[in-house]
Amino acid sequence: MTTKRLRGTYTGGYTISAAYSLLKIDDTAVIKGVGIVGGAPVKVENHGVILSGKGGDGSASHVQGRDGNTGINLAGGNRVVNFGTVIAGQGGGGYSYRPGAYAGAGGAGGAAVVFSTSGSVTNRNVILGGDGGAGGARLASGGPAGVGGAGGAGILLIAGGDVIDSAQVTGGAGGIGGYGLQGGAAGGAGGAAIAFG
Q1: Which residues contact 82 (CB under 8 A, 6 or more apart)?
Q2: Can you tell me the distance from the alpha carbon of 65 to that of 132, in angstroms, rounded to the nearest whole number?
Q3: Is the confidence at residue 21, as pLDDT, over 60?
């Protein structure tokens, strides 16, 4: 088993090389940005803090807020053992109305742990999905405000798998709906603690 150990701060996140079959994240490590990303099967043992980046806010050219980053995203599957903290990124806020534009929806919160293929998660501390972004306000008449973004799942197993949790796995809160002169918009749905498919 070829091991990679992370210490210190990784502001942009960390992408795991296919050469490693085990990634150990020390208790001194802080991972930000895109979080931990892996393409090949790999085991991740986390003792540190993964605090993924927020999605970008909406703008005149792209009114909807961007989705928040995932905490640990393993396309090739295998296993995550968490003794630390994994918090996914919040969705970006929707663009508020300006002349010639519309109020945008908030971006979805990121999922904290994602497996694209079958995987296994053992959690001994905190795994938290990202909160949805706020919907944009509608500050003039003529259209609705933006809805709030959905909260991200704590753990998302797209192709199935198993979870052992003895601590806290929580989905993110839905984003608040935007204010509108002709009525406010709905808030986003809260994220599931554990989601399949």
Answers
A1: 46, 113, 121, 122, 123, 124, 125, 126, 127
A2: 9
A3: yes
pLDDT tens sequence across 168-180: 999 999 999 998 8
Exposure string of 127-165, with b = 16+ CB inside 10 Å and e = fewer, is bbbbbbbbbbbbeeeeebbbbbbbbbbbbbbbeebebeb
Q: Distance between CA atoms of 175 and 184, rounded to whole angstroms?
A: 13
How far is residue 21's CA from residue 51's CA, in Å, rounded to a whole number?
23
Q: Cα(68)–Cα(88) distance, rounded to whole angstroms?
A: 7
The model's pTM is 0.94
The CA-to-CA distance between both ends of the chain, in Å, stands at 30
Integer Cα distance of 155 and 137 in angstroms: 31
For residue range 61-107, list pLDDT tens digits in order: 778 999 999 999 999 999 999 999 999 999 999 998 766 567 899 99
pLDDT value, residue 70: 98
* Cross-strand pairs, 42: 78
Q: Kindly state the tokens that stand for 31.
A: 């991972």
Euclidean distance between CA atoms 139 and 95, whole angstroms: 11
